[in-house]
Amino acid sequence: DPQFRNYTATSPLSADVSIVLTNTKPQGVKAVRLFPLTLAAVCARGFAASVARLGRDAFRETALILQKARPFAWSNWANELGLDTPEPRNIIELDTMFSVVRAAERGIGIALVPEILCDAWFRSGALVRLFSLQLETDDAYYLVSRLKDADKPEVTAITDWTLGQFCRQPELQ
Fold first, then answer.
1. pLDDT at residue 5, as a whole number
2. What is the pTM of this model?
């Protein structure tokens, strides 16, 4: 979320515990880095054969879906692969990453989505990865809480539970 891009203690933290996405460690709060934001190119399973048939032309012939907060994600991804920047006929810009994922799931186009957060879609087969390459961004997810609340039993409990959930992820060990 762009509002957390440069999160500081002066930013309002209305929840006891939050997960924020930012490119620097949040200051003035207790912050634990959970994992980096990595993006994978995906599409709906039923759309994957068409994308494969088109090869590199898929990026010109197929709509590319992106989150408005990440307008350069496709350019950065292509650069990592050593490809020319995609010049699609259609670009679909959506406000939230959830809407990006859902649009890809419905076969509207190809999207760059957060790898770890889309695991359930991959396991169910609703989304398929198009390439093994993931684009690791400068952003990371942090678990944050107010300093004055960090030692409260309920904050400690949810913090411990969250860390336990993410520590089970192979890429985090």
1. 46
2. 0.75
Q: Determine phi and psi for 16, rounding to 5 degrees.
A: -65, -40
Q: What is the largest CA-CA distance in the chain?
A: 56
Q: Which sign does the torsion angle of CA 12, 16, 21, 23 carry?
A: positive
CB neighbour list of residue 34: distance below 8 Å, 6 or more residues apart: 19, 140, 141, 142, 143, 162, 163, 166, 172
As a whole number of angstroms, the distance between CA 42 and CA 139 comes to 20
User: How far are the Cα atoms of 63, 150, 161 from residue 154, in angstroms, in the given order?
Assistant: 45, 9, 11
- Strands annotated E in the chain: 17-22, 29-44, 64-67, 91-94, 110-114, 127-146
Q: Give CA–CA dist 21/6, Å, rounded.
A: 9
Q: Is the pLDDT of residue 4 over 90?
A: no
Condensed to tens digits (0 to 9), the pLDDT of residues 14-46 reads 788 999 989 999 999 999 999 898 999 999 999
Backbone CA torsion sign across 63, 64, 65, 70: negative
**What number of H helices and E strands is found in the chain?**
6, 6
